[in-house]
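Sanity check

After download, print the first record. It should look like this:
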Amino acid sequence: MSEYIIRFIAVNVDDLDDAAYARLVEAATTMPGIRLVGEVMVDAETRRLDVRFAIPVEQAMAEAARDGGRLAKEILLSARIPDARLVEMTVRMVDPEADGWTGTDDGEENE
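Expected structure tokens:
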């Protein structure tokens, strides 16, 4: 089984309330079968949401992309941001056994 990091960016059609960040974090940390990776980012000014999570996948990247898109939408629904539109999604296979793997794109070491 391989692990894939799914990163999605969504833009909400309406202004985000002050609790949007907390709801996204809760949705991403309590949803079965996924692991939150890095920090959730919410930009209230641009109404932009940025979330990374990891999922285990048995088959291939196509399965990760299919499941990742569905899970991204479920996270938004669970966070009560149903009108947010997915504008970008990346799927990346990772090797957690690799030296220096952090699960993020920024190259910082895990602590």
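If your output differs, re-run the checksum step. Summary of this record's structure: DSSP finds two helices and five strands in the chain.
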